C-alpha cells in the first residue's frame, strides 16, 4: 500500500513588499515646488494660449493651477514671447499668486533662452533643436571631427544659459524627444533609445562641467515601448556615472479620449511602479485642464499621492442586491470632494466585508431593500436602501471626517 510522506513544515516566506520604492534623486527647486529629493511626484501641464496673449495666458495658468497643476509650462517661440512672460508673471502675482513657470525654448534659442530665464523658474531645452545642424546632402556618416565641432558649438551656445540659471538658482529641463533627435545622433546611434540617452548625456556633461546641477531630464516618445526603454536606459547610464537627476515622465502626442489616457497610463504608470519618475505630464489633444485628473488618478492608483477618495466597488453579478452602478454614482457624487478616504460599495455579503477590509467605510447589500454600513471591518448599522447614502454621510460626519463641498 502506497503511503504519502508527512508534509514538512515550510519556512515562512518573507512578506511581499507592496510599497513602491522610488529611485533616489537630487532635489531640484522650481519656484516653490521641488522635483525629486523624495518629494511627492509633481504634476505638470502646459497652456495652449499664445504667450503674447497676456490676459489669456494668465487665465489659462490660473485655471490649471487651481485644479492642482503644480508647474505650468508655456511656449516662447520668439523674443517677443519671452518678454511677454515678464508681464504674465507680474499679473499672476498681482491678481492671483506666484505660480512655478517653465518656458519651452526650441530652434537656435540661446538669445530667447537668456531673456526668458529672467522671468521663469525653469527653462526647457530640446537637445535636438537647440543648435541647428544643417543637413548635408548624401551624408552617410559623421566624422569624429564633425561630431566634436558641433559639440563645441553646443557648449558655446549653452554655456551662457547655464551660467544665468546657475547664478539665479533656477532650473533646466533637458527634454529629449524621440521625434526630434539631432541628425548626427541619428547617424551615430540610429533612431533609438541609445541616441536619446546619449543626446541627454551630452548636455548633462556640459552642465556639470559648469557646476550646474539643477537639472531635470525627460526622454519622451509617442510609442510606449520606446519611451520605456529610453527612461530605463537613462537610469542605468546615470547609475553607472554617479548621476542622480530627477526624471520628468511623459508619452508625447498620446492623442485624445480613452486611448490617449490608456497610452499615457501604460507608459507613465509602468515607470512609476518601478520607482522611476519625479514629475509627470499627460499630453492629451484636449483642453489642458483634462490632463490633471489623469495625472492624479495614475498617482493615486499607485499609492504615490492621495488627492481624492479611493472607491472600491465590485463589478456586480447575479448576487447583487441593488443597482450597483447607480448607487456607486450616488455615493461618488456625495463624497467626491473629500480627500484621504477609502469607501467601498459592494453588491452582496459574499465578498463584501473581505474585499473591502482596507476601506474606511463600506456600503454593502446584505438583504433585499437594506444596506449595511461598515466602519472598517465593523458593521455599524443596517438601514433601508433609500437612506443608504444619507446614512453613510452621517457616519462620516459622526467620525469628524466630513467637510462641506
Automatic annotation (TrEMBL):
<dbReference type="InterPro" id="IPR004588">
    <property type="entry name" value="IspG_bac-typ"/>
</dbReference>
<keyword id="KW-0560">Oxidoreductase</keyword>
<dbReference type="InterPro" id="IPR011005">
    <property type="entry name" value="Dihydropteroate_synth-like_sf"/>
</dbReference>
<keyword id="KW-0479">Metal-binding</keyword>
<feature type="binding site">
    <location>
        <position position="314"/>
    </location>
    <ligand>
        <name>[4Fe-4S] cluster</name>
    </ligand>
</feature>
<feature type="binding site">
    <location>
        <position position="317"/>
    </location>
    <ligand>
        <name>[4Fe-4S] cluster</name>
    </ligand>
</feature>
<feature type="region of interest" description="Disordered">
    <location>
        <begin position="1"/>
        <end position="22"/>
    </location>
</feature>
<dbReference type="Pfam" id="PF26540">
    <property type="entry name" value="GcpE_C"/>
</dbReference>
<dbReference type="InterPro" id="IPR045854">
    <property type="entry name" value="NO2/SO3_Rdtase_4Fe4S_sf"/>
</dbReference>
<comment type="function">
    <text>Converts 2C-methyl-D-erythritol 2,4-cyclodiphosphate (ME-2,4cPP) into 1-hydroxy-2-methyl-2-(E)-butenyl 4-diphosphate.</text>
</comment>
<dbReference type="InterPro" id="IPR016425">
    <property type="entry name" value="IspG_bac"/>
</dbReference>
<keyword id="KW-0414">Isoprene biosynthesis</keyword>
<feature type="binding site">
    <location>
        <position position="348"/>
    </location>
    <ligand>
        <name>[4Fe-4S] cluster</name>
    </ligand>
</feature>
<feature type="domain" description="IspG TIM-barrel">
    <location>
        <begin position="25"/>
        <end position="296"/>
    </location>
</feature>
<dbReference type="InterPro" id="IPR058578">
    <property type="entry name" value="IspG_TIM"/>
</dbReference>
<dbReference type="InterPro" id="IPR058579">
    <property type="entry name" value="IspG_C"/>
</dbReference>
<feature type="domain" description="IspG C-terminal">
    <location>
        <begin position="310"/>
        <end position="397"/>
    </location>
</feature>
<dbReference type="GO" id="GO:0046429">
    <property type="term" value="F:4-hydroxy-3-methylbut-2-en-1-yl diphosphate synthase activity (ferredoxin)"/>
</dbReference>
<comment type="similarity">
    <text>Belongs to the IspG family.</text>
</comment>
<comment type="pathway">
    <text>Isoprenoid biosynthesis; isopentenyl diphosphate biosynthesis via DXP pathway; isopentenyl diphosphate from 1-deoxy-D-xylulose 5-phosphate: step 5/6.</text>
</comment>
<protein>
    <recommendedName>
        <fullName>4-hydroxy-3-methylbut-2-en-1-yl diphosphate synthase (ferredoxin)</fullName>
        <ecNumber>1.17.7.1</ecNumber>
    </recommendedName>
</protein>
<keyword id="KW-0004">4Fe-4S</keyword>
<keyword id="KW-0411">Iron-sulfur</keyword>
<keyword id="KW-0408">Iron</keyword>
<dbReference type="Pfam" id="PF04551">
    <property type="entry name" value="GcpE"/>
</dbReference>
<feature type="binding site">
    <location>
        <position position="355"/>
    </location>
    <ligand>
        <name>[4Fe-4S] cluster</name>
    </ligand>
</feature>
Amino acid at each position: 500500500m502506497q503511503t504519502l510522506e508527512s508534509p514538512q513544515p515550510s519556512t515562512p516566506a518573507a512578506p511581499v513588499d507592496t510599497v513602491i520604492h522610488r529611485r533616489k534623486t537630487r532635489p531640484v527647486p522650481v519656484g516653490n515646488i521641488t522635483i525629486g529629493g523624495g518629494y511627492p511626484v509633481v504634476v505638470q501641464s502646459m497652456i495652449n494660449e499664445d504667450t503674447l496673449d497676456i490676459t489669456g495666458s494668465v487665465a489659462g495658468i490660473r485655471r490649471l493651477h487651481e485644479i492642482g497643476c503644480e508647474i505650468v509650462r508655456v511656449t516662447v517661440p520668439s523674443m517677443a514671447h519671452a518678454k511677454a512672460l515678464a508681464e504674465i508673471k507680474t499679473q499672476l502675482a498681482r491678481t492671483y499668486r506666484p505660480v512655478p513657470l517653465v518656458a519651452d525654448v526650441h530652434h537656435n534659442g540661446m538669445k530667447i533662452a537668456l531673456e526668458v530665464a529672467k522671468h521663469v523658474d525653469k527653462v526647457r531645452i530640446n537637445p535636438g533643436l537647440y543648435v541647428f545642424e544643417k543637413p548635408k546632402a548624401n551624408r552617410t556618416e559623421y566624422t569624429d571631427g564633425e561630431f566634436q565641432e558641433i559639440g563645441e558649438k553646443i557648449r558655446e551656445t549653452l554655456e551662457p544659459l547655464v551660467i544665468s540659471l546657475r547664478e539665479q538658482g533656477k532650473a533646466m529641463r533637458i527634454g529629449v524627444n524621440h521625434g526630434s533627435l539631432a541628425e548626427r545622433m541619428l547617424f551615430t546611434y540610429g533612431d533609438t533609445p541609445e541616441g536619446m540617452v546619449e543626446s541627454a548625456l551630452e548636455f548633462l556633461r556640459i552642465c556639470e562641467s559648469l557646476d550646474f546641477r539643477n537639472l531635470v531630464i525627460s526622454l519622451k516618445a509617442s510609442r510606449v515601448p520606446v519611451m520605456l526603454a529610453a527612461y530605463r536606459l537613462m537610469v542605468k547610464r546615470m547609475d553607472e556615472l554617479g548621476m542622480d537627476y530627477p526624471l520628468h515622465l511623459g508619452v508625447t502626442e498620446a492623442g485624445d479620449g480613452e486611448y490617449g489616457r490608456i497610452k499615457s497610463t501604460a507608459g507613465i504608470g509602468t515607470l512609476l511602479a518601478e520607482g522611476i519618475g519625479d514629475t509627470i505630464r499627460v499630453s492629451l489633444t484636449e483642453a489642458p485642464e483634462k490632463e490633471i485628473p489623469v495625472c492624479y488618478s495614475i498617482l493615486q492608483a499607485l499609492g504615490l499621492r492621495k488627492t481624492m477618495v479611493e472607491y472600491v466597488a465590485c463589478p456586480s453579478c447575479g448576487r447583487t442586491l441593488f443597482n450597483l452602478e447607480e448607487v456607486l454614482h450616488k455615493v461618488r457624487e456625495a463624497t467626491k470632494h473629500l480627500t484621504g478616504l477609502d469607501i467601498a460599495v459592494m453588491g452582496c455579503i459574499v465578498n463584501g466585508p473581505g474585499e473591502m477590509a482596507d476601506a474606511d467605510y463600506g456600503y454593502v447589500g446584505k438583504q433585499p431593500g437594506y444596506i449595511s454600513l461598515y466602519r472598517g471591518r465593523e458593521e455599524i448599522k443596517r438601514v433601508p436602501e433609500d437612506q443608504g447614502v444619507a446614512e453613510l454621510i452621517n457616519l462620516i460626519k459622526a467620525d469628524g471626517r466630513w467637510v462641506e463641498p
